[in-house]
């Protein structure tokens, strides 16, 4: 191994090997539980900045952790055409030729520019270590996404959710285009209504109550129930009646029989749910599919039987007769099957509310179908969706997806203004279908079609991306396996734009929310607290931090950004933050720094010095492995982690494995709760302060002293060291993929083991039963606390003139001895049995061993003395501060008589504090 860690050498080849090995790809046929993230497609407006990098590294940490934890992890990449932004930037670069080449050629040039920009973004993602499934990459204006956009537009138009009208809009006088509002829709059904549901060719019936009968066990007749969701009867587990309803008193405790699967349905009494005046007074109970029934099931300890798959089809619990049917298809089939058995009664209109679009988006969060993290953003979500307006989906731009609507001009009205007659507009999925529709509408007449010159709003296309990238509107394996996705991770500033509209579109077009959780990370700001923004020129390219950049190079990049001259002038002043440029930090250090920032706050100030600090820490990890490799030797055969026996180990080995267990539990808990900064803090603390600073230092004497004296301890510590490094690198991998892969590959491999080829597909560590030993942890913490107290009392330098701080402590001789040999105390305290030596033995190690052999009572006595001296130092500093204030107040009293009364009041308070300090010091002396 090289003596020093070099990010360039470590990171140059691993990514290509990971990708070529297929480690990034998910399998839609896998039986593993899916974990899916769709990368919020970055705008093709140049390059990623530090805000994008934060999104990338957090998502990659989640994906790598879940992949190692046994999930079928899929992370889908993509790019967004970013209508207005891209046109603005494109016009800035193509301003000299736009007027000469025309509209179509101008759009073509922007596409070429997009290809160059997209390549830059892909390179940045690879350098950051993003384990994206590139085989599924999408672009919001590629052929597949364009076709899906036309399909979505046509469906929404057919259902009346998109219409053409004149409205007041927000208008940008510079860009000459409207700026979007939002959309809301809520349906109150007063009677039977047929609605077109996405994924179903025929309309679906709503606003009805269906009555049917359950036969009673023992030939006692039947009991009639009613529901507006007949398909849920496949999951019924009971029938509830009111305990005082005389009609059913003879049935209390008896059973009905399910007609399709023979399940016995107990007839229960529940006064809290059942209103005997409603319907028949008997209620079917489906605990797994209704919130009220859920409570009944809990109260009566009923079975919870789920009958739906994740994509809304009947599963095996619903019975072979209906298994695999979409739920609304099963609704019709169940009614027919009940009729065949003579159990169907009737169907009646039933007034009901049906939430669609944004109202469903509101309820999705309210009923926890979508969880927003941090939770306080739910209030903002609710306020915004409760006060929405219709959303203008057209933009008057060159760059974008053309609205799939054509205006029909007949031969005799060629002079009429385009769009003046709304009846002449035809919405279709393509021009060919629009022409067929026009021929049906105007048979035998000659006409021309003129496509609407406007383009769709950028939010319209991005709101479809979560499912179009999985193949929608086609019935693909990816859509079945991976929709809805698991998490949407993005900045909190787009919560009320793209996220809400994605939820609306997912519910309307796919029948389900597009993701189960929303994690909102902080906004990345520069060192002055101003949000990083390309238009302001204060962004940092992640590659500038990874590779390093001189001050002159940073200025050159700014000049190439086509910034406004005034903005460029301001930015040049801000570049004083980097007078010496940026040192080479590598991707791992940048990733760890960004993830450590991801606490649940609103804004973070990015400090390059923090990244540099983690770059130095990478060298610490490197040296830890170098030390271990020297102790393992060429013929060392490490143990399997699960078979490590801690019973015969030295105390320090037991302690480090116990802390490893504790760190593992903290990291997993933090990751599951999306507290990423807590996870990085836990893994950093264990590596730095427990493994490197204590354990490695503690076991060094085993390898440097008499080989026979420490033979068993040396073997145990070697095995423990290997287990710690192997487990610790796997714990760290989601945050620092490159260096962990490099170092993990260098560790010796157990013979006859099933070790994976890469750390990224190895198992993520879990808590090991038997490793946690509270006694050893407590004892070790007392030792470490004593050592830290001694170090805190030690003079700053040898030339310090004042008396040592520990001069007043009891047991000065003991403290001096420990201070002299503190560097080996921890090492010797790890030995299970230390021989009692004579006091006149002058060997440093033996002197320290004799002190340590007095065991914990010595440390406890020492700890009390040290705590007392620390308290004395604190009181001494406080007295000096008060005396300085007293002196200043005395001068002011002489200078201004009118301040005397106020100053006297302060003096009296200070005198009381000084008296309290003296009393405390007297008690310390007595003790």
TrEMBL record:
Signal sequence bounds: none
Reaction equation(s) it catalyzes: tRNA(Val) + L-valine + ATP = L-valyl-tRNA(Val) + AMP + diphosphate
PROSITE patterns according to UniProt: AA_TRNA_LIGASE_I
Residues covered by the Methionyl/Valyl/Leucyl/Isoleucyl-tRNA synthetase anticodon-binding domain: 654-795
Enzyme Commission number, as recorded: 6.1.1.9
Highest taxon above the source species: Eukaryota
InterPro entries to which the protein is assigned, alphabetical: aa-tRNA-synth_I_CS (IPR001412), aa-tRNA-synth_Ia (IPR002300), Anticodon_Ia_Val (IPR033705), M/V/L/I-tRNA-synth_anticd-bd (IPR013155), Rossmann-like_a/b/a_fold (IPR014729), tRNAsynth_Ia_anticodon-bd (IPR009080), Val/Leu/Ile-tRNA-synth_edit (IPR009008), Valyl-tRNA_ligase (IPR002303)
Gene Ontology molecular function: any one: valine-tRNA ligase activity
Keyword entries, A-Z: Aminoacyl-tRNA synthetase, ATP-binding, Ligase, Nucleotide-binding, Protein biosynthesis
Domain Aminoacyl-tRNA synthetase class Ia stretches: 14-606
GO BP, one annotated term: reproductive structure development
Family recorded in the similarity comment: Belongs to the class-I aminoacyl-tRNA synthetase family.
Protein name in the entry: valine--tRNA ligase
Organism: Urochloa decumbens
């Amino acid at each position: 191994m090289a003596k020093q860690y070099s990010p360039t050498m470590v990171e140059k080849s691993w990514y290509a090997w990971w990708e070529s090995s297929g480690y990034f790809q998910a399998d839609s046929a896998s039986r593993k539980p899916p974990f899916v993230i769709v990368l919020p497609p970055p705008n093709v407006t140049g390059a990623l900045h530090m805000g994008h990098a934060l999104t990338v590294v957090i998502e990659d940490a989640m994906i790598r952790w879940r992949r190692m934890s046994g999930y079928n992890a899929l992370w889908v990449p993509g790019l967004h055409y970013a209508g207005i932004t891209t046109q603005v930037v494109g016009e800035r670069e193509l301003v000299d030729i736009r007027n000469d080449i025309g509209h179509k050629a101008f759009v073509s040039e922007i596409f070429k520019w997009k290809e160059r920009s997209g390549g830059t973004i892909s390179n940045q993602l690879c350098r950051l270590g993003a384990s994206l499934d590139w085989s599924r990459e999408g672009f919001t204006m590629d052929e597949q996404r364009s076709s899906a956009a036309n399909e979505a537009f046509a469906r929404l138009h057919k259902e009346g959710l998109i219409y053409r009208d004149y409205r007041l809009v927000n208008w940008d006088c510079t860009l000459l285009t409207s700026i979007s509002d939002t959309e809301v829709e809520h349906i109150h059904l007063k009677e039977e209504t047929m609605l077109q549901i996405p994924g179903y060719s025929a309309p679906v019936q709503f606003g009805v109550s269906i009555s049917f009968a359950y036969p009673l066990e023992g030939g006692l007749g039947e009991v009639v129930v009613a529901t507006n969701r007949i398909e849920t009867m496949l999951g019924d587990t009971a029938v509830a009646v009111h305990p005082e309803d005389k009609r059913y008193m003879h049935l209390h405790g008896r059973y009905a029989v399910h007609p399709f699967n023979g399940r016995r349905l107990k007839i229960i009494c529940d006064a809290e749910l059942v209103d005997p005046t409603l319907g028949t007074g008997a209620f079917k109970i489906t605990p797994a599919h209704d919130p009220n029934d859920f409570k009944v099931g809990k109260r009566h300890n009923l079975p919870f039987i789920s009958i739906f798959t994740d994509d809304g089809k009947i599963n095996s619990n619903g019975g072979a007769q209906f298994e695999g049917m979409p739920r609304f298809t099963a609704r019709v089939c169940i009614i027919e099957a009940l009729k065949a058995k003579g159990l169907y009664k009737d169907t009646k209109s039933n007034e009901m509310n049906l939430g669609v679009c944004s109202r469903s988006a509101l309820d999705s969060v309210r009923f926890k179908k979508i969880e927003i993290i941090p939770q306080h953003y739910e209030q903002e979500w609710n306020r915004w969706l409760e006060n929405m307006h219709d959303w203008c989906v057209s933009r008057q731009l060159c760059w974008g997806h053309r609205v799939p609507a054509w205006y029909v001009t007949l031969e005799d009205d060629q002079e009429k203004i385009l769009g003046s007659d709304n009846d002449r507009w035809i919405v279709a999925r393509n021009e060919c279908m629009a022409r067929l529709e026009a021929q049906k509408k105007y048979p035998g007449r000659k006409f021309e079609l003129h496509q609407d010159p406007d383009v769709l709003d950028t939010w319209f296309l991005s709101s479809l991306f979560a499912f179009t990238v999985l193949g929608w509107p086609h019935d693909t394996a990816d859509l079945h396996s991976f929709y809805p996705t698991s998490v949407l991770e993005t900045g909190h500033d787009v919560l009320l734009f793209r996220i809400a509209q994605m939820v609306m579109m997912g519910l309307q077009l796919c029948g389900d929310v597009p993701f189960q959780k929303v994690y909102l990370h902080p906004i990345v700001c520069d060192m002055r607290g101003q949000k990083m923004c390309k238009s302001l020129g204060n962004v940092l390219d992640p590659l500038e931090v990874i590779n390093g950049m001189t001050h002159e190079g940073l200025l050159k990049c700014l000049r190439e950004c086509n910034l406004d001259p005034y903005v460029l002038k301001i930015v040049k002043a801000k570049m004083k933050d980097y007078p010496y440029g940026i040192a080479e930090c590598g991707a791992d250090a940048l990733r760890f720094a960004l993830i450590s920032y991801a606490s649940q706050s609103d804004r973070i100030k990015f400090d390059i010095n923090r990244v540099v600090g983690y770059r130095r820490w990478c060298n610490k990890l490197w040296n830890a492995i170098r030390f271990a490799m020297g102790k393992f030797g060429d013929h060392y055969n490490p143990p399997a982690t699960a078979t490590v026996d801690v019973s015969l180990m030295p105390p320090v080995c037991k302690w480090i494995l116990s802390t490893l267990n504790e760190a593992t539990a903290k990291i997993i808990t933090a990751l599951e709760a999306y507290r990423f900064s807590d996870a990085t803090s836990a893994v950093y603390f264990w590596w730095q302060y427990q493994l490197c600073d204590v354990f490695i230092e503690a076991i060094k004497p085993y390898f440097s002293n008499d080989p026979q004296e420490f033979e068993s301890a040396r073997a145990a510590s070697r095995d423990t060291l290997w287990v710690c490094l192997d487990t610790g690198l796997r714990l760290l991998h989601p945050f620092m993929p490159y260096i962990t892969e490099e170092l993990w590959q260098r560790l010796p491999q157990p013979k006859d083991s099933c070790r994976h080829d890469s750390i990224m597909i190895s198992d993520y560590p879990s808590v090991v039963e038997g490793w946690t030993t509270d006694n050893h942890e407590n004892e070790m913490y007392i030792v470490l606390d004593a050592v830290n107290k001694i170090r805190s009392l030690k003079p700053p330098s040898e030339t310090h003139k004042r008396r040592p701080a520990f001069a007043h402590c009891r047991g000065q001789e003991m403290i001096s001895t420990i201070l002299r040999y503190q560097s080996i105390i921890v090492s010797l305290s790890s030995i299970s049995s230390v021989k009692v030596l004579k006091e006149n033995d002058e060997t440093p190690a033996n002197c320290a061993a004799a002190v340590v052999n007095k065991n914990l009572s010595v440390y406890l006595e020492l700890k009390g003395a040290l705590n007392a001296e620390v308290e004395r130092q604190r009181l001494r500093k406080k007295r000096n501060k008060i005396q300085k204030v007293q002196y200043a107040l005395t001068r002011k009293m002489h200078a201004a008589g009118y301040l005397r009364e106020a100053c006297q009041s302060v003096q009296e308070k200070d005198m009381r504090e000084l008296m309290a300090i003296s009393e405390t010091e007297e008690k310390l002396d007595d003790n």
